[in-house]
Amino acid sequence: MSEHFFAPCPRGLESALAAELTRLGAAQVSPVESGVGFQGDWPLCYRVNLWSRLASRVLWRIAHGPYQSEEEVYRLARAVDWPSYFDVDQTFAVSTVARRCPLKSLNFVTLRIKDAVCDRFRDTRGRRPNVDTARPAVRLAAFLDATHLTLYLDTSGEALFKRGWRKSKGEAPLKENLAAGILHLTGWQPGVPLLDPMCGSGTFLMEAALMALHIAPGLGRGFAFERLENFDAQAWARLRREAEAECRPRQQLPLWGSDSDAAAVRHARRNFAEAGLAPVVALERKDVLELEAPAAEGVLVTNPPYGERIGDLATLAEFYPRLGSVLKQRFAGWRVFIFTADTRLPGLMRLKPARRTPLYNGPLACRLYEFPMVAGSHRRQR
Ligand SMILES: C[S@@+](CC[C@H](N)C(=O)[O-])C[C@H]1O[C@@H](n2cnc3c(N)ncnc32)[C@H](O)[C@@H]1O
Fold this sequence. Notes:
The protein has helices spanning about 15-25, 40-50, 70-80, 105-125, 175-185, 205-210, 235-245, 260-275, 315-330, 345-350, 375-380, and strands at about 5-10, 25-30, 35-40, 60-65, 90-100, 140-145, 150-155, 195, 255-260, 280-285, 300, 335-340, 355-360, 365-370. It is α/β, with parallel strands linked by helices. It folds into 2 domains: about 5-155, VC0802-like, CATH 3.30.2130; about 175-215 and about 245-380, Vaccinia Virus protein VP39 (Rossmann fold, 3-Layer(aba) Sandwich), CATH 3.40.50. Helix 2 packs parallel to helix 7 (about 235-245). The protein is elongated. Residues about 375-380 have low confidence and may be disordered. The structure holds S-adenosylmethionine. The site of S-adenosylmethionine (SAM) has 21 residues, from loops. InterPro entries: DNA_methylase_N6_adenine_CS (IPR002052), RlmKL-like_Mtase (IPR000241), RlmL_1st (IPR054170), SAM-dependent_MTases_sf (IPR029063), THUMP_dom (IPR004114). Keywords: Methyltransferase, RNA-binding, Transferase. It comes from Thiobacter aerophilum.
């Protein structure tokens, strides 16, 4: 039976996610802002949770209908047979997102949906499930536009960018699905040399390693669908077995990471060790301004310090021109991608981007700049 799902993702990655979902077997794939709707059966939902590198979560559509008042929201939510979806002993939480919703208080809407779920349980089970807003077993997501309410059950639980390997964060790490999406946009393919010279906790390199070794990003974690009443344990066990069989043997890969901060390199090392992937990547403490290219050509992708988050604007204004010179002098033959919220960056580096792709890091508007470092570009740029 075909179910309706919605997978939110970082803004800017919608069409990449649509392509990924199609590859995974989804039907009726329709990208909208910040996510992609799709249809499929339950094994597909499990597969997307297990394999999607770009989705933030997978929401299962339970109810959809028009509303004009809080009372109509309550009635729509009350009409859902919640006890057929999850057990009364599971805790739950409701989160509400709205766009152009005419109702006054979203908190009140959330409260009415919670009441409706509890009342429905009381009707059929004689008691109600507890609410746990911090670590609920079951998450309900309500989406209201100007006229319609959609209710979803979250099949993922913890967001999918939490792959389960990150024990050590460091400063300002990228979300894993955003890093995977950026890698996708660079066109990098396993086997091509990849360098992140300001690697922090190593997110780009970790995502690249998982892709190269064909490791399903969700293999090391659990999912909320395992707690739903309709959970098909056999189908899930089969998908996991298949994913385990697809992992390629751990081996050294052409992946290099460095950072000038010893603690960042320690974080990255700990993360790779935790994922059982220490031997696949070369990590070292080094200032990017002293780095030599580790191969004749490849993809350099990085997310440098950003003024508002780390470091200070004046220091960065000195740093970027020097970075531009290093790239021109030592990275001829490489394709360089820089992900940043700082629009001064190409000007300060004195490099003209061949492409700039708008992306969001949470609410922060960013760009992925591509600078092809063709041999001789140094002279031309000057
Ligand atoms: C925004 S963080 C990168 C976060 C990383 N993408 C992650 O997901 O964890 C920027 C990193 O650049 C490093 N950095 C700053 N200046 C550097 C330099 N001159 N050479 C090498 N690394 C530098 C910082 O130590 C920091 O780890």
